[in-house]
Amino acid sequence: MPKIISVWISNTSPASFKIIDHVSKEYIQALPLLENDDEIYVIVPAEDIFLATVKLPKLSLNRLIKAVPYALEVNLAENIEHLHFALGKKEANFLSVAVVSKEKMNEWISQLATLFSSTPPSLKMMLPETLTLPREADSWTLLIDETKGLIRTDDQAGFAIELPLFWQILYKRLQSPSVLLPRTIKIIGKVTTAVPEPILQKLQQLQIPLEQTSYTDKTLLLSHTLNATKAINLLQGAYKIYAPVATHKKWYMTGVLALTCLVIFTLGNITQLFILSYQNNQLRDQIKIHFNHVFPRTPFIEYQLQNRVQQELQLQRQHYAESDFLRLMRMVIPTISQATGVKTIGIEYANQELTFELNAPDFILLGKLTQALKSQNLEVNVEQEMQSGNTIQARLKIREII
User: Fold this and answer.
1) Strand 184-189 to strand 139-144: parallel, antiparallel, or no bridges (unpaired)?
2) What is the spatial distance between Cα 101 and Cα 36, in angstroms, rounded to a whole number?
3) Residue of 340, 390, 327 lying closest to 369 (CA atoms)
């Protein structure tokens, strides 16, 4: 029977595991041989992970991945090149994101390799302990241990911080008009938690009920709802290779998809070949009719006409390949098309100068685009910048430096 294997990594003790049975929800201490359908979840310290929500326009997944680090850069103390960004759910234009240092991710992966020394792990999810707290709709869940407090305010939102600072931040959130308050707050602790009096008074004023329960084993508590969690999975991007696979199912499905694509591709090519052959014959007949009409006494020799057309096409290619306009477009277009979130509204060319009307999501991205163009020996002048809502409208004049 498949098992849910919960691995808890702590900053204060070695990595440990619990094996949670699907039916009884009990755990054993001995790690048996792993099977292909076992589900391994890794719970990592919440204080090492920054959970955020960022507002972004509608973008493709690849452009979203590139845009998120720059959208959060002002809120981060560390260089974004040293950080790993895991994307969560997106509602309207708001995206949940988990941020953790790559050094920490590598450290946790190393601990797992040591723990599962006999069997390399196939991981289902790696998630912060904050997002493993049990949660009901319209409620906040707090877990208080000896040194810190954890709070889960939504499926993919929460934070962890040392006591007693935790209570101060919680009080400020209850006072903030921009925070969507819960209907109930549930506190879980090893013993009945002594809630500060200002918090109790504020909850009474807001008419938010407070419920308290206790736990005996933190790892077991956090593991009970893992197989139905809606948390952000940190195993994305460069760390996605650690996600689980059932080997026989993976290769079976891959083979079926590959065969289907091959059949579709082959049939498509054959159909296209017949269509092109038919069109080619029609075109040849029309050329012959026109040739005989213009030169009624000259025999139609197909290869001579073909050679003449090819010579004319080659001359045209050489002429246009040397134009200033095309050379400048070849330098500019790849850079602009790769800029995340930048949309081209209009293009003009006059006096060996390109004018681009652009929309960009922010001034930072517009500045990076300008620098990227200048690095190609181009002169770039930003003639107009104005902000309209969440969009920056700009006019760039670009010419080649000779």
Assistant:
1) parallel
2) 30
3) 340
The C-alpha atoms of residue 295 and residue 299 are separated, in whole angstroms, by 8
One-letter amino acid of 330: R
The two tokens of residue 395 are 């006019």
Measured CA to CA, the distance from residue 81 to residue 101 in angstroms comes to 9
How many Å from the N-terminal Cα to the C-terminal Cα in the chain?
A: 72
Please write the tens of the pLDDT for every residue from 375-385. Answer: 988 999 988 77
In which band, very low, low, confident or very high, does the pLDDT at 82 lie, cut at 50, 70 and 90?
very high
Neighbours of 146 (CB within 10 A): 7
Which of the residue ranges 43-47, 177-181, 237-241, 347-351 would you say has the lowest mean pLDDT? 237-241
d(CA 66, CA 51): 18
Q: In the 8-state DSSP scheme, what is residue 349? A: E
Nearest to 44 by CA among 187, 188, 233, 186: 233
Higher pLDDT, 210 or 363: 210
pLDDT classification of 310: cutoffs 50, 70, 90: low
Tell me the C-alpha distance between 278 and 110, whole Å: 62
Please, what is the Cα angle at 400 between 398 and 402, to 5 degrees? 150
Whole-angstrom Cα distance, residue 18 to residue 28? 6
Residue of 28, 15, 23, 14 whose CA lies nearest to 220: 28
Distance CA(331)–CA(398), nearest Å, equals 10
Query: What is the enclosing helix (H) or strand (E) of 78?
Result: none
Question: How far is the C-alpha of 40 from the C-alpha of 3, rounded, in Å?
Answer: 8
Radius of gyration of the chain (CA): 31
